[in-house]
């Protein structure tokens, strides 16, 4: 690639954050996607290469999350026909519940913004990344895109209004995420969800959501633990993930504060009060899938405070 | 009354706090109920007088919120037959949405605890006050009892577990509460509520609840204002309150951050960023009811940080 190329990394993220369906998520240190862009004499945005996707991701810019995000941004700044070549390096599993489409969308728009000498600030890139991710997930929710771009634990008051807020990450908190190598499409995972819930479920889940936020502000790990109980989505979706109950039990027995589905699954996330527990939790979760002869990969990470970056 | 008497004040409170149905509330400085207790030679708890209730509140200790709260506490500490006389001074409207039953229950149990030289700490009185309030409201929810006892803005993660947390009150925040003199019984107000809601309502309301909590932690008045929108309960209950829409509009036009039903109504609460706005809001709300020929009383208050106290 030419010397004028720009390379951006955007991290994986955990959507829903157990009790914040569509409105809460956090960024991991790794894995993540990388995107390289460079100026081209040929007008228009073009995806020249996609590595690591085994042909499963479309190269057409209007169907690709990174392409859509970048093009919406170019349209916004009045540079729709700017000649840009994009290389996508998928370095994380997709359809995994780790925010893979979001990471690509974020990396795509951020790389182009950097290439054009930052016409917008990082935070202003959010709506374009969101539009890109929507191509893959079919629903408007920023709980992967916002943490992947901005880092940290993100709460979204309203997705339409993109009313996005960062919540403090307690010192020491660690995530353990295990990805069993089975595929669930986000759109399919949404399909199993009932359109209605009871008031009682709403009240209990709201209690857990508020408890989680208060626990994060106060670094109250016990409260965080009591609050990490999803009474609405997990009971419906966990049946799509073989071994879910055993993995969850093994994580809690190993000392995790809580354990549930990461995003739309099949990845499973546990939160722990320190890295040692997070590693023990990872071993326990891995053993369950190993005994079931399901291949899995494990990620242990702090909560990434930086989000996407140029490197 | 004898010189050994103990007098306790417990303040009114705003339940639900707009978007935290059954799980969030705050205390007002005034109005409130007062209870006087003294030791008696006659065994057992007895309610000798109830002032200010126009005969509408039962004197039987097993039917009276203060009586039930105090008796449960006496049973717990092994003093079931202790001779105690109780005078209840209702100094606030009941069935008003201001937590009148909760205030009496709190004052009752706290007065007896003080009379017996504090066998329990203030916070430990919560379950007894809750049991007392349940006699009137028929449902288990501590969003009036907990703020009336403890003061401040209270979040309850789980009512069964009494998992109670205090959220910071931003400096300057003021409540304006107007009580139109019509009666709604809490149990009736619960009756109009649907047992189910849509997932979409749940997500939007959860966003507002989280936004409110984050706004309170960060003293972000704009975020508090955007979050004070109840999409679930207010649309169902507000039709029980004549003039509700006009009062709400007038409060918002006068500068309130938000305005909705206080508890189960008919009182209406507005929050404002300072006392001057809170007074303007109060004038605007009063005018609406005045023009409708509905008598009303107005309370303007900081968020009471002390809760119930002996005086």
Detail the topology: elements first, then pairings.
The structure is a homodimer of 311-residue chains.
Chain A: E1 6-14, E2 24-39, E3 45-51, H1 65-76, E4 84-89, H2 100-115, H3 126-137, H4 145-150, E5 153-158, E6 163-167, E7 174-180, H5 186-191, E8 196-198, H6 199-218, H7 221-227, H8 234-237, H9 244-253, E9 258-261, E10 268-272, H10 275-291, E11 296-302, E12 309-310
Parallel strand pairs in A: 3-4
Antiparallel strand pairs in A: 1-2, 1-12, 2-4, 2-5, 5-6, 7-10, 7-11, 9-10
Helix pairs in contact in A: 1-2, 1-3, 2-3, 6-7, 9-10
Structural class call of chain A reads: alpha+beta
Binned strand content of chain A: 15-25%
Uncertain runs of chain A with pLDDT below 50, 5 residues or more?
A: none
Distance between the termini of chain A: 15 Å
Biggest beta-sheet profile of chain A: 7 strands, mixed
Please report the number of helical segments of chain A.
Answer: 10
Alpha carbon gyration radius of chain A: 19 Å
**Number of E-state strands of chain A:** 12
Label the overall shape of chain A: globular
Class of the largest domain in chain A in CATH?
Answer: Alpha Beta
What's the mean pLDDT score of chain A?
A: 95
Number of domains of chain A: 2
Oligomeric state as shown? homodimer
Most residues in contact, chain pair and counts: A-B, 39 and 39 residues
CATH topology value of the largest domain in chain A: Ribosomal Protein S5, domain 2
The percent of residues in helical segments of chain A reads 25-40%
Secondary-structure element string of chain A: EEEHEHHHEEEHEHHHHEEHEE
Second-tier CATH architecture of the largest domain in chain A: 2-Layer Sandwich
């Amino acid at each position: 690639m030419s010397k004028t190329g720009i390379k951006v990394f955007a991290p994986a993220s955990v959507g829903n954050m157990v009790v914040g369906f569509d409105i809460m998520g956090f960024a991991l240190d790794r894995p993540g996607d990388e995107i390289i862009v460079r100026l081209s004499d040929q007008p228009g945005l073009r995806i020249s290469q996609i590595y690591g996707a085994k042909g499963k991701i479309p190269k057409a810019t209007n169907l690709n999350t990174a392409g859509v995000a970048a093009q919406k941004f170019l349209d916004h700044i009045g540079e729709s026909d700017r000649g840009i070549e994009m290389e996508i390096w998928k370095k994380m599993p997709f359809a995994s519940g780790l925010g893979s489409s979001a990471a690509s969308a974020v990396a795509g728009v951020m790389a182009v913004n950097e290439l054009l000498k930052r016409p917008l600030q990082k935070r202003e890139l959010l709506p374009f990344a969101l539009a890109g991710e929507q191509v893959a997930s079919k629903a408007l929710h920023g709980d992967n895109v916002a943490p992947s771009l901005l880092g940290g634990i993100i709460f979204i008051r309203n997705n339409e209004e993109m009313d996005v807020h960062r919540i403090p990450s307690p010192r020491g908190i660690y995530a353990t995420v295990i990805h069993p190598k089975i595929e669930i499409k986000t759109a399919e995972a949404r399909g199993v969800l009932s359109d209605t819930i009871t008031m009682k479920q709403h009240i209990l889940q709201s209690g857990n959501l508020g408890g989680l936020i208060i626990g994060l502000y106060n670094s109250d790990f016990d409260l965080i633990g009591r609050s990490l109980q999803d009474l609405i989505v997990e009971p419906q979706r966990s049946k799509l993930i073989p071994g879910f109950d055993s993995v969850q039990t093994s994580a809690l027995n190993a000392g995790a504060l809580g354990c549930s589905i990461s995003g739309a699954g099949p990845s499973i996330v546990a939160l722990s009060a320190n890295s040692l527990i997070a590693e023990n939790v990872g071993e326990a979760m891995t053993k369950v899938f190993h005994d079931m002869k399901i291949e899995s990969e494990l990620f242990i990470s702090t909560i990434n405070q930086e989000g996407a970056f140029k490197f």
